[in-house]
Design a protein that fits this description.
Chain lengths: 197, 197
């Protein structure tokens, strides 16, 4: 998505430790008109799928999921919650997600009543790097015996392994921008060439 | 908002400890079409204000803020973040918010660059009880020398003190549903009568 690459170039900040900050329009302040374009683009890329529900994880994924749902006839959004131990019960599907950025492991839950074997799920998230968050969400969908129809990512770090692993496993994954490399000293970001619609 | 009261009656669950769970359409699973109606209603109630930015707090507020921004010409949303100590710096406005529900105190931050003295801020959130979260957000707006134009709440617990305090201080506060009492044994919820638009 050319407009996204331009936005990342203009407003993203590359930091040491392979970190790209997009707080200006996605992760702290939200450019709501632009987010609408992201939702529209996901619809274009996944319209051939029969999707009944959008699944994401709090907090940054929520806005993306909501903007996308509008373009899929206002289907429900479910966001997985980072759980306190007290929330662990027989009523929830549970998985653990490790964050390499924060060096933490979170327990993540979805209430069983919000994912069923009849659901065709579109997973969305802001970033894909090692894929831990997405594999965690897939795990929750599998526990519910629901079907993963596709995975929509705003920014993929193409030089990390998550994207390749997911594609190798046969998932329909689309990342609106794929970063092949970035340089914290110069701020330079190199995007992978993708075909535009 | 009559439709909201009906939705709470139909889908909300009253629990012991003055807790109302609206996970079915607002706080875990999101009824995205209904959220759109909530955004439209906030626009109707606050259209006379000059608003440049919507401020909320992660995670549950994000979807509400986004749905509302669409009806205010796609103005930016900023969500305050629950901070790790490492995020405390001179670059952020910082406040502490106590949650009576979870019996925790969170450090909450907004990056200074996303709130300025020129901003006219509309604060939105899902619940208002004691008002700790809203007063925390007001504190952040004040630190930025910005102006609070209004406060939009989806569900106010009218039997708790937050709403009255905010109104007494002269804020334009609108809650789409105000609960005067609820009973965890019978599930009964009594709403305060409000005039409809």
């Amino acid at each position: 998505m050319k407009a996204l690459e331009e936005k990342i170039q203009a407003e993203g900040i590359v930091k040491a430790g392979d970190i790209l900050k997009v707080d200006h329009f996605l992760n702290h302040q939200i450019d709501t008109a632009f987010l609408d374009e992201i939702g529209k683009e996901f619809q274009r890329l996944f319209h051939q799928h029969h999707i009944t529900k959008i699944l994401t994880i709090e907090a940054s994924g929520i806005a993306i999921a909501l903007a996308t749902a509008r373009y899929f006839d206002y289907i429900p959004v479910v966001f997985a919650k980072k759980a306190k131990t007290a929330q662990m019960s027989d009523d929830v599907y549970h998985t653990s997600i490790h964050s390499y950025t924060h060096q933490t492991t979170s327990d993540v839950v979805v209430a069983k009543q919000y994912l069923s074997c009849e659901d065709h799920v579109f997973i969305v998230d802001d970033f894909l790097a090692n894929g831990c968050a997405v594999f965690g969400l897939i795990d929750l969908v599998c526990q519910a015996h629901a079907k993963v129809e596709g995975i929509g990512i705003v920014i993929e770090k193409g030089h990390q392994a998550g994207g390749q692993k997911l594609r190798d496993q046969g998932y329909h994954l689309e990342s609106l921008a794929i970063i092949d490399s970035m340089n914290a000293c110069t701020g330079e970001i190199i995007f992978r060439k993708q075909k535009e619609g």
